[in-house]
Amino acid sequence: MTTLPDPRPRAKAGADGVFRITGWLCTSCGHRLLVHPPRCSRCLSPALEVSEFGPTGTLWSSTVVRIAVPGRTPPYALAYVDLDDGPRILAEIIGVAERVSIGTRVALSSQSDIGDLRVEMLL
């Protein structure tokens, strides 16, 4: 059986301690991607360069998961976040067990031991 690489984006803290995600930017049309395709999914240009996204964004949608899955203890909140300078990501909202309002400002804060992105609400 072949094991495929984990497709989830990775968050890494820079020298400044701020978390960012590495992805790709199409230099032809400006489209931002988290996966590395051979060509831009918008304009089909092969002109892709490595780029970093984050750390802040706006919550696009959220939900609360109340069922147990391996590596997680319910309830916990998940959210789609539109990064200010990048694509939309799926992340756990740290310290929250309820739905969060659309438009809430968040920042990348870490990556869990099981590889999921985490964000925290900004005050």
Which key terms come to mind for this protein?
123 residues; mainly beta; OB fold (Dihydrolipoamide Acetyltransferase, E2P); 5-stranded mixed beta barrel; 0% helix
Please describe what this structure looks like:
The chain is an all-beta fold and 123 residues long. It folds into two domains: 13-53; 56-121, OB fold (Dihydrolipoamide Acetyltransferase, E2P). Helices cover 0% and strands 45% of the residues. The protein has no helices and nine strands. The chain has strands at 11-13, 19-26, 32-33, 48-53, 56-65, 76-83, 88-93, 105-111, 117-121. A five-stranded mixed β-barrel has the order 5-6-7-9-8. Strands 1, 2, 3 and 4 form a four-stranded antiparallel sheet that branches. Strand 2 and strand 3 form a beta hairpin.
The shape, in one word, is: globular
CATH topology of the largest domain: OB fold (Dihydrolipoamide Acetyltransferase, E2P)
> How many β-strand runs?
9
- Our estimate of the beta-strand percent is 35-45%
Largest beta sheet: strand ordering: 5-6-7-9-8
Strand/helix succession: EEEEEEEEE
Q: What are the segments in which pLDDT stays under 50 over at least 5 consecutive residues?
A: none
How is the biggest beta sheet arranged? 5 strands, mixed, barrel
CATH architecture descriptor text of the largest domain: Beta Barrel
Question: Which percent range fits the helix content?
Answer: under 10%
Estimated structural class: mainly beta
Terminal CA distance reads 47 Å
Number of helices: 0
Quaternary assembly: single chain
Average pLDDT confidence is 93
Domain count: the total is: 2
CATH class of the largest domain: Mainly Beta
Rg over C-alpha atoms, rounded to the nearest angstrom: 15 Å
